[in-house]
Amino acid sequence: MTTITLAPMGLRLEAAAGTPLRDVLFGAGVEFPCGGRGRCKGCRVRVVDGEMISSADDRAAFSETELRNGWRLACRHAAGGDVTLELAQWEMAVLGDAEDFVFTPHAGLGIAVDLGTTTIAAQLLDLTTGQVLAAKTALNTQARHGADVLSRAAYAMTGGASELTALIRVQIGAMVTELSSDARQIVVAGNSAMHHSFGGLDITPLATHPFLPHHPETLHFAGADLGWPTDAAVEVLPCIGGLVGGDVLAGVMATGLAQRRGLVALVDLGTNGEVVVAQGGKMLCTSTAAGPAFEGARITHGMRAATGAIDAVEANETCRVIGGGTARGICGSGLVDAVAAGLDLGIITPNGWLECDWPLSDDVVLTPRDVRELQLAKGAIAAGLKLLTARFNATPAELDMLYLAGAFGNAINRTSAVRIGLLRIDPECIVPAGNTALKGAKRALFQEMVDFETLAKKIDYVPLSEEPQFQDTFAEEMRF
What we know:
By secondary structure, the chain is α/β, with parallel strands linked by helices. Helix content is 30%, strand content 22%.
């Protein structure tokens, strides 16, 4: 085993020699904006101690001076000897966003939390410099009561609401305590269901027509009110509408969507897929019941993106396994790749027909039911995007830029996404934006909350259930 130490927070990770660094670092909250293909330098690290011999990709990406100073592309290396790495993307994290962002430094520490349906990510920031000092990630413990929002809403409505609230408050409280009990401000970004669940609000309106949040405003707490050992002010970003919550609002802020020229979109590919389309200051959003297929749930051998998961499949049926070794299952990005490869090989037809189970490895197969699950998920996202762009008298193919948010959007092969019809747009116009919810939450540590509340009111929510074209569009977009 080798030890990888991450500076400046001193986090120590253990990995078997030969394990790709991408697989090791991803679980610690490090993002790989181009999906680990060595194109963007977003995962660049500096070797502070130890040795990491430069690769051909490093030499193409960095100058001689940068190479001598130890800069490398994390995605193009594997664990070797013990090494200490400095993460470029965690230096001046707020100022390092793609959009220029001038902030007023504050004294003390702050914590930004991305409260996802499946995973939770939290980062501790120095509010004077904006630098990330430490990070924590975990699976949402509410998942024991359902993988998706609707399952948890059903559990809440049958008497489990207080338990769900207690679970998430205790879990985030423990993460906050591990990061620092001295934080002066904590910002939480989550979808409408997570917003209500954390706040102890009635979730019933989100699960019944017209599917609107009961209390969409910013939630304010003191840490002590939540049973946490901190006096920090805790704020939960406001909802936009329906199941489009503060996480998407944070993404709109982080990507500067409202200020972008042309027709642009933000898509979050999660269990509840959210879509925002903007042009000339006008912004529309919607949510789609994509289901958990993109995260490996309800798939025969599905699993999250962890060691042993197939996360990429080539047309020659070669599979890439996270961490190397024997495949234990397949995650969302691998599922999209597998179906794209199956279409190219003629194993899967455009209408989704797969005659029998398709072995991807000795122990992992793709079944006809798995293909159907992906069809449902991709059909919902594609239909939502098509209907929103139609309101701008355009089609998805006419988008000037599309930002993909979230861990799955960061890992998905853009060409495969286009091949299966999930995104009908030039792959070069698709920009993996990383964890935009967390980036937006970090900005909220420095900006007035009124800025986010004002922005939320400028985004119009479009309920797909009331769109007369939705069912027909959804059926059309089921086709690969």
